[in-house]
Amino acid sequence: KNEVEQSPQNLTAQEGEFITINCSYSVGISALHWLQQHPGGGIVSLFMLSSGKKKHGRLIATINIQEKHSSLHITASHPRDSAVYICAVQGDKLIFGTGTRLQVFP
Amino acid sequence: DGGITQSPKYLFRKEGQNVTLSCEQNLNHDAMYWYRQDPGQGLRLIYYSQIVNDFQKGDIAEGYSVSREKKESFPLTVTSAQKNPTAFYLCASRPRTGANTGELFFGEGSRLTVL
Q1: Which of B84, B48, B42 is nearest to B63 (CA)?
Q2: What is the per-residue pLDDT across B30-81, written as a single tens digit (0 to 9) for each?
Q3: Angle formed at CA B60 by CA A65 and CA B11, multiple of 5 degrees
């Protein structure tokens, strides 16, 4: 079993829909990262959080340390949100999930 | 603007050749990392460096080598000993070392294809 599990693996949405991507982990962590990988391959850090909730524009990230679970929400999704979203947990080392591929259609 | 620059973006290599991928950052970050990405897998750590003139092996270091002669530069050499080098390589940096090392910054990646 992977130490970091993301779901779903693939997600298709219509423009305007509310999106949720989940990340569960099995190790002790000091922080969790949400990353966005563009079709060209470059990766951008969206959030780093260790408790509670963070919001940036239409993106919201939450984490429940007791349940070892985090969610990334996208409100009013747009085709430009189409990307791979990667969860990574910081324990003794950084462990990456395999990503969730999101496609948003107009 | 501050950031990480990787080059080349695309690289083709014949079997038996060594190639070097460049990674330069102007963020004044202490920690730098090289990751390999394969389809269907999470990023895997090849090498990392927390300070100039020092670096450590990651999970899949065999067939790779690095150097850290300057704070801003962390080149990766893919040697002929690497059995399956075709992959997408990502360089990253973070402000500090140790726990709570801060936000990750990534380059645009280098795609290596061995012919």
Answers
A1: B84
A2: 999 999 999 888 899 999 999 999 999 999 999 999 999 999 999 999 998 8
A3: 110
> What are A28's two structure tokens?
């002790």
Of B88, B100, B105, the CB nearest to A41: B88
Q: For residue B90, which of A16, A96, A73 has the smallest C-alpha distance?
A: A96
Do residues A91 and A75 lie in contact, with contact meaning Cβ atoms separated by under 8 Å?
no
* Residues of chain A with C-beta less than 8 angstroms from the C-beta of B108: 40-42
Give pLDDT, residue B39.
87
Say yes or no to pLDDT of B109 above 90.
yes
